[in-house]
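Problem: given the chain below (583 residues), write out its structure.
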Amino acid sequence: MTIDDLKKQRRWVLWRFVQKPGKPKPDKVPFQVNGKMARTNDPSTWSTFAECEAVVSGFDGIGLVLGEVDGVHVWGVDIDGCCDALTGKFSPESREVVIGLDSYGEYSPSGEGCHVFGLGALPGDGKPIVRPFPGCKQIEIKGRGYYFTLTGRHLSKTPHELMERQAEITALCERVLSSTHSKGLIVAIPLDEEARLRKLMAGDTSDYDGNHSRADLALCGILARRFHNDVFKIDDEFRKSGLYREKWERSDYRSMTILKAIKGEPIFDAGDSEPIEDDGPTEYLVNALPEPMHEGWFPLGEVSLIGGSSGAGKTSWAMPLLEKIRNGAEVFGHTAKPRDYRVLLHDRSKKAMQRTVKALGLSAEAIERVIRLSTAQQSRPPAEILEAAIEREPGVECWFIEGLDLWITDPNKMEVVGPVIDGLQRIATRRDVAVLGTVGSPKQRGKDNKYYGRDALFGSAALARKVETVVLMQLHDDNDPNSVRRCTVLPRNGRAETLFFEWQAEGLVLTTEPQAVPEARAIDRMEQRIFQAVQPGDEIKYQPGFGNRNLFYEWKNRALTQGKVTRSNGKYYRAYPEKETVN
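Solution.
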C-alpha cells in the first residue's frame, strides 16, 4: 500500500497552526476543505488528497487520518526530537526504531523528528501511547481517532510503501510501555552562535557527538551567515579552523557541505542517500586499492555474497580471508583493519568444518569462531538468528553465513529472496556489521556460459540486485575438481578483480592464470562423438547427439579423404584401422 494509494481514499484533512490560550506552542488543528474544523473521529469531515491539495495554499499543510478506512488500517509513529535538523543525523535509539519498523517513513515538518506509517491495528484497546523514550523527546504511537501531518520528505532508508507490520508495532508498543526512561534525550545542546563558533574553530566536535562531518556542516552554516554566503570566504575561513583535514580537499565533499550550509538544508534529505546512516566514509573489511575505480570489499552495514557451484571452494576461500582480516594482515594486496568474525554454519556439520579448517592450515581459533546452527534455528528466519547471535557476541563486526541459500526456497523469485536479504540488511545496517553469505551458482562451461558477472549467482535477478560485493568462485576445468579456481570479486561501484588459486599442502594458494590450451575445433569434437558411437565396419548415420547436421556432412567428406570412412552404394562406413606391417 503506497501513499498514492491512500490519496485515493477519503481519509485526508487540512491543518493549520492555532495558538491556544495558556499553551507555549501552537497546535496543529485539523480543518475541512470548506474552512470548517474537521474531526478525526467523523469521516464526513474528511476528503480525498486531491480535494485538500486544491486549497492547501490557505492552510499550513495536509494530514493523513489514521485508523480504518475502506478496510485499510493505518497506524502512525511520531518520534519527536530524534534527529538534528541541520544534519539529518538520527540518534542511535530512534534509528533502531525506524529501521526495525521497516515501513514508510518521512521527516516531520520541523525536521527534528520523523513519522513512520504502517498497516495494522494497535494492540489491545487501540489507545494511543505517548511516552518519553531514549534518543528523543518523546514517542507517540497512534491509530483510530488521530491524524499525522504529511510532508512527503521520505526517509530513503525506509520502504516507499506502508508495510504490514503487526508484529513490529505490537513489539514497539510493549517496549515503549515498559520503558522506565523519564526524560528525553536532546540531540543537540543549544549554544549561542559565538560560543559555537569558537569551539568549532578550535576543532572541538564534542557538541556533535564527535562526528567530524556534522561539525564541518555546522561551522559552514555559521560562516555562511557571517560572510553572506560567499563560497570562497567560507572555504578560506574553514581552512583556518581546527576542523580542517584531508577530507576537505575532496571537492565533492567540500562543495556539498558548503552548498548545504548556504541553503540551510539537512545534509541528508529526501534527495540524498541514507538519511539515517552514520555520516562518514564507508568502512570495508578489505580496504580499496589506491588505483582509480577500485572499491573496498564487503562494506560494513551491508550484505555481500560468495557464489559458486558445489566444490568450487567458497568456504575454503572465505575462511582464510576472514582469518587474515581478524589478524589485520594483507589480503591479496589489500590492507585490512583487524576485525573479529563469527561463522553461522548451516549446510555442513561442525566436524566437516573442522576438516576444512585443518586442510586449510588454519589455527584452532578459526574453528572456535564457528557456530553450528541447530535444526530449530535453521527453521527460523536468518535475520532472527543473526540478531540473536550478535546479541550473544557483541563487538563482532563480520558475520559469515555458510549456506545462506538453504534459507531461500526459490532463489529466482524476488518475493522469496527479498524478505530474506532485506531482513539481513536491516540487521547489518542497525548493527553496522558486514554480513557475508555463501550461495550456489550454475556450473560455468566455457563459451557455452550464459551467466555473466553478478548474474552468475543462482536467482540472479533477485540476489545480485540486492547485495553489495559479489564474489564468484569457478573451477578452471569443470571436469577436474582439483583444477585452478578462478575468483572474481565484483564490488557494487568499483572495478572487478580476478584472482586465481590452486590447492597446495597449506590449502588454497594464490597462483597465476593457467595458460590457455587450444580448444579442439567443433568438427574434431564431432569426430570424437561419432567414433565413440560407431564401431569399425558399421554404417555411419546422422544422430542429433553428434551435433550440427551440416557440420556432420562436412565431416563425412573430410573423413572420406582421410581414409577414416569408406563409401559403398551411397552409404558411409567407419573404416577398419590399418594393420601394422612387420619388417
